[in-house]
Amino acid sequence: MIIAIDGPAASGKGTLARRVADALDYAYLDTGLLYRATGRKVLDLGYDPEDAIAAVEAAEKLVAADLDRDDLRSEEVGTAASKVAAIPKVRAVLLDFQRNLAAHPPGGKRGAILDGRDIGTVVCPDAPIKFYLTASVGERAGRRFKQLQEKNTAVIYERVLKELEERDARDSARDVAPLKPAIDAIHIDTDRLNANAVFDAVMAHITTHMRGDD
Ligand code: DC
After folding, report:
1. Dihedral of alpha carbons 119, 129, 9, 26, sign
2. What is the DSSP letter of 10?
3. At what angle do helices 32-44 and 52-60 cross, to 10 degrees?
4. Which end of the chain is more exposed for a tag (fewer CB within 10 A), N or C?
């Protein structure tokens, strides 16, 4: 069983996917981490994340430890991830890893949950359950701003908003695997829903599907 959760940056899909994976005892893959780790490597080597040769090489050389770094969550790395993600060959290099994990969830788990931008459309188009989480960019920027403040990061709301708008535009406009809902995805607008309400809605859909009466 594969469950796909897609949506724009800061739509709450990571928190949701982790919670659903725990509840179902499924494996979980945050596919954004693959792009973040690639972007981080390119920055560390002093290259521009839009440099296709450097980005492809970084993606090809990714190892598990690169995904465990604790410096992948910054906005700087998010932007670099979004830039390397627009390079078709980088996406091709990372595709097999994602599909393989979905097909063979580690730890003998019965299923996998993948979250990202193109899980329902490209990585796992046959996933039987797909969600597309949305929220207005203002709402998402507000949430991200609060998270950064809680971590005592010096942060300016207008900057967070601008970075999210730029990332949305780049992730949606790229030629290969752009951010967009699969035609069979269940849309959930989280503007007026808290994390618990989103989780309950998603679990209700999954339970209905698993009972086979949807
Ligand atoms: O989900 P995230 O914010 O950690 O993702 C970082 C960037 O990686 C995002 O702006 C675009 C890219 N990405 C992608 O292109 N495809 C995915 N499946 C996941 C992330």
Report:
1. negative
2. T
3. 120
4. C
pTM, rounded to two decimals: 0.95
Predicted local distance difference test score (pLDDT) of residue 213: 55
pLDDT tens by residue, 141-154: 999 999 889 987 78
**Does the CB atom of residue 115 touch ligand 1 within 6 A?**
no
Q: Indicate whether residue 132 lines ligand 1 (CB < 6 A).
A: no
Instruction: Tell me if 122 CB under 6 Å of ligand 1.
Output: no
- Centroid of ligand 1 to alpha carbon of 173 (angstroms): 13
The ranges assigned to domains in the chain are 2-208
| Fold (topology level) of 2-208 | Rossmann fold (3.40.50)
